[in-house]
Amino acid sequence: MPGIDTSRTFIPLNIAVMTVSDTRTSETDTSGDVLAERIEKAGHHLADRVIVTDDLQMIRNQLRTWIADAHIDIVISTGGTGLTGRDVTPEAFKSVYEKEIDGFSAIFHRISYEKIGTSTIQSRATAGVAHGKYLFALPGSPSACKDGWDEILQYQLDNRYRPCNFVEILPRLQEHK
């Protein structure tokens, strides 16, 4: 049965949050607030937090900065995963992936479907691995961030979660190097 093994010691991770938006500010970034609050409540460290405009190169540059930072383990973004012309977050993420985590999108859509029905088809949530880091791109709504964290990430980013989790294999992500 899946669940938290309380006999194991929790390992806090350093997680960076990127909000992708042309309109949000630090005062109006409710989706970024949702992620930051949940990250810290879970016992992880909020390593960095930025707002980046919907610009492919700017998103890619921020990802590369964090990928190169030895003090960051995980990147989670919110916003820019839709279908409009300005929504380029998945393209930026996929341009830096070494491996895509296809199951993340599949599970996210299953969870989202239960709440918003077929409207979930408009999201291009994605996840992957780059240079020993996990990268997750969530939609820009606070409810989508809650779903992504509460239903997937809080478990997979907790080394105590059984039968397996992303934390256990984090040290092995660069075995090919």
From TrEMBL:
Biological pathway: Cofactor biosynthesis; molybdopterin biosynthesis
InterPro entries membership: MoaB (IPR012245), MoaB/Mog-like_dom_sf (IPR036425), MoaB/Mog_dom (IPR001453), MoaB_proteobac (IPR013484)
SMART domains: MoCF_biosynth
Coiled-coil ranges per UniProt: none
Keywords: Molybdenum cofactor biosynthesis
Domain MoaB/Mog: 16-160
PANTHER family given in the database record: MOLYBDENUM COFACTOR BIOSYNTHESIS PROTEIN B
GO BP term (any one): Mo-molybdopterin cofactor biosynthetic process
Pfam families, per the entry: MoCF_biosynth
GO cellular component: cytosol
Similarity field: Belongs to the MoaB/Mog family.
CDD domains per record: MogA_MoaB
Protein name (record): Molybdenum cofactor biosynthesis protein B
Function of the molecule: May be involved in the biosynthesis of molybdopterin.
Signal peptide: none
